[in-house]
Design brief:
By secondary structure, this protein is α+β, with helices and mostly antiparallel strands. The chain contains three helices and twelve strands; from the N terminus they run αβββββββββαβββα. It has a twelve-stranded antiparallel beta barrel.
């Protein structure tokens, strides 16, 4: 990762856990009145933050989420810049269990017509009888102005997170998609978000939908959905703040 704080956070993520990581089905992203701090918080109310984000190197740097309402809490996950242009997104999540390695995924960006699409893979859990199994599926954030976004009562246009069929994997991916992903409903909308229009402190509003709202996909998937949402928001704020 980039600076000293980012490197320290990356090292600490190896020692953290996904246990107890939960998000409300609907929450909001807030920012400090002073943009110099580039500190964000997540919760159902600005006065009661659940998690805090830090951009220690500014708008164009890495993104870190902390497992609590302050920066004194341990880092939970992070996104670092990659590639020659620095516009790649490498996501680090905690290990799935004791003795395991951290989860490393990348979020790629491509153009589809006039629209940006952000794609990533994530570990999801599934129940098979009394046994809980895990597999890797692909997902993508795509622009949307449909009812599920309008129901947020923010901007009429926002983003939706949907499952991607196995054949929809990015062409530059080296690894084949898990065949079990074919059994899942491709195109299912799992979350939506939109920029806020109602408050000077509120940046965006987010909502889990369908199986994304039940918790059945697991903590790793939920954390990946949230941190990629904030990363996409950050990427678009870079354009605004230039």
């Amino acid at each position: 990762m980039g600076g000293a704080e980012s490197k320290a956070a990356h090292q600490k993520i190896h020692k953290t856990t996904l246990a107890g990581v939960t998000f409300p089905n609907t929450f909001e992203l807030y920012y400090e009145p002073s943009w110099k701090k580039l500190k964000l918080s997540l919760g159902e109310a600005s006065s009661e933050p659940l998690y805090t984000f830090n951009l220690p190197e500014g708008w164009w740097g890495d993104l870190i989420i902390y497992n609590g309402p302050t920066l004194e809490h341990p880092p939970l996950a992070a996104v670092r810049n990659t590639g020659k242009s620095g516009m790649g997104n490498a996501v680090t999540l905690p290990p799935l269990g004791p003795g395991q390695e951290v989860l490393e995924e990348k979020m790629s960006r491509r153009r589809k017509g006039l629209m940006d699409v952000f794609s990533f893979a994530a570990v999801v859990q599934a129940q098979e009888g009394e046994k809980t199994t895990r597999r890797v599926e692909r997902f993508e954030w795509v622009g949307s102005g449909r009812k599920e976004v309008k129901d947020l009562h923010e901007w009429k246009h926002g983003w939706k997170l949907r499952r991607v069929a196995a054949s929809g994997a990015d062409e530059d991916e080296d690894e084949a998609e898990d065949e079990s992903a074919n059994e899942m409903p491709a195109g299912e909308i799992l979350a939506v978000w939109a920029d806020s229009t109602m408050s000077m402190r509120k940046a965006a509003k987010f909502q889990f939908l369908n199986s994304g709202a039940t918790g059945e996909l697991g903590e790793a998937w939920a954390l990946m959905a949230v941190i990629t949402f904030v990363r996409v928001w950050q990427r678009y704020m870079q354009v605004v703040m230039v």
